[in-house]
Amino acid sequence: MSERNDRKVTRATADLVAREANVSRIAVSRAFNPNASLKPEKRDRILKIARELNYTPDMAARSLVTRRSHLVGMIVPDVCSPWESQEIDALTTALQAEGFATLLFKVKADFSMDQTLLTYMRGFNPDSVIAFTENVEPAVLSGFLDRAVPVYIIYDDAEEFAAKRSTSLYDRLVVRQKEGIEQAVALLQGYGARRVAYLGGKRQSLANTERERIITQVLAERGMAPPVVVPGDYTYDTAYRATLDLFRVGDGADAIFASNDVAAFGAIDALRHELSLSVPGDVKVVGFDDIPQSHWKSYNLTTVRIDLADRVRALVRLILRRLKTPGADPLVETLSTRLVVRGTVG
Amino acid sequence: MSERNDRKVTRATADLVAREANVSRIAVSRAFNPNASLKPEKRDRILKIARELNYTPDMAARSLVTRRSHLVGMIVPDVCSPWESQEIDALTTALQAEGFATLLFKVKADFSMDQTLLTYMRGFNPDSVIAFTENVEPAVLSGFLDRAVPVYIIYDDAEEFAAKRSTSLYDRLVVRQKEGIEQAVALLQGYGARRVAYLGGKRQSLANTERERIITQVLAERGMAPPVVVPGDYTYDTAYRATLDLFRVGDGADAIFASNDVAAFGAIDALRHELSLSVPGDVKVVGFDDIPQSHWKSYNLTTVRIDLADRVRALVRLILRRLKTPGADPLVETLSTRLVVRGTVG
DNA sequence: TTGTACGCGTTATCAT
DNA sequence: ATGATAACGCGTACAA
């Protein structure tokens, strides 16, 4: 009964390898744990036989006793948005190299992070969780995910924000957007822009509200009028229509600061292909993120760059550190931004 | 000792819930299994207390006994390519609705699907595996993944192909590319194209070789010259450079059939912004996939569409069926393609 | 409907 | 360096 079962393919277990190699089951376990002490020659023999039998330790069984699932949960609203897909790609690569697998969860696009999902997710016991959606209360998330390390990506004014959301107890990544925004506004001003519009992203997005706040602040500091704020949602289509509205119903603008690159593309296409305006001749456009598409010749977008590699490195650093020393004090990683000048301003 | 441990947060277990609700641990288990028989009122009380205690059944422990991990592995070379990120998004959404979580694994871009990854992956015991990389031998994959259901996406001439790769033992999805390609070639011919170039994708990609083969075949059937084949790799930058080569070093073409939409964008930008040729005036361009970017006004690409929703539905169907009836005969799902006419031909 | 006993595959503990 | 034993948290057969 326990010797043979009728499943088509019977998965090799440590016991099978042990029997085949004439060692104890424990020795097999140790062979797969580099730290365990085992006579090298014995380990080699075991690993060889394991390979022949196509044996791999079962992570589920292992996690049951080690309390480490080697799973990292990622919560995303849209896998197919260029920025996020890039980030998922880079994170998955980096984590895979460290022995962690990516567990992907999708939340509804309206950012309603329902408890259902978190409960569901918790069943998998991820060692860590990366939340891209910035509108989750730390308390909610950490309450649900015992073993997990919530990592929050917040923007500027980190300390003030942390205090407000009582998030200072958690590891977090701070993106200093102001630097890049200042450079962008300076460039726009230098080329004579007077009436700047801000093409917003999703209302609930923290990145968006912070971008709007900082742009307003920087414009004021430079003696310029406050931005005309046009609502959007980070998508091409919405940006396209919003730009048409701005110029047909509204009073237009001589510069558009978009909340991300994709929205900038929508604005550019509306200006050029429907409003017959020239970019940057009639209207200057600046984006945010610097996704690969931004250097495509049809757009050649001037944009505020967030360095993806740096960002991913910082995140992985936070995760690994928290995993190694669970009791350590919360750590803050900081990331700066800078303007990448291409052809849509000037 | 087993009553209290010193971990900061102690995960609620079925035992704890049972104690709190004054029921047996088994009752808790049953409360979470809809099929199990349990007095409704009792179940409700248990579920309520479970919610209060923030309890979720541990999937790892559960999978150990049920032999179902509720994990679906996805193997991708590039998360950030538009088509794949779309597909990952849709699949994750669909699978999540069915109670499965997506486990993401990245393979090297050169398609070298190394056994290391598969071994690593097998440790997680995914219930099913979707391989986007089309160059994995079924035998290799199935040998490594006992519990998994390899799903292969192959193109046209399914039976011939199946026989050649001895893949007929597995579930598979067949994409009939010929229909869309025929429509595209007819359109090109109708608008006077005579010299058609095929801008290739990754050499190892099965989709690519099949596309080239079918285009050649269709051109012949319509009495047109064979295509000028230009090597590429599905990326914008390579397509851009390849197009420059084609017109500066080579003899040019009056129509370019790109292996995917992104490559088509690269070709269009090279033609318009560097070679000062008009699209579609001087050169007509057709893509493949119909990603969201294809309707962006700057490109407005005529392209062969593969319906993503249909494709994902078919894949999920295959997976769920195989999970429910492991012994069932291999099933073939078929998908057709059609031309979406926009502004780059004619 | 409910409870008992056991096993899933692995590692930790404590021996030797 | 190695081996025996006891967990880890859960589902299932079986009995009640």
UniProtKB/TrEMBL annotation, chains A, B:
Residues 17-66 form the HTH lacI-type domain. Keywords: DNA-binding, Plasmid, Transcription, Transcription regulation. InterPro entries: HTH_LacI, LacI/GalR-like_sensor, Lambda_DNA-bd_dom_sf, Peripla_BP_I. GO terms for molecular function: DNA-binding transcription factor activity; transcription cis-regulatory region binding. PANTHER family: ALANINE RACEMASE, LACI-RELATED TRANSCRIPTIONAL REPRESSOR. This is LacI family DNA-binding transcriptional regulator.
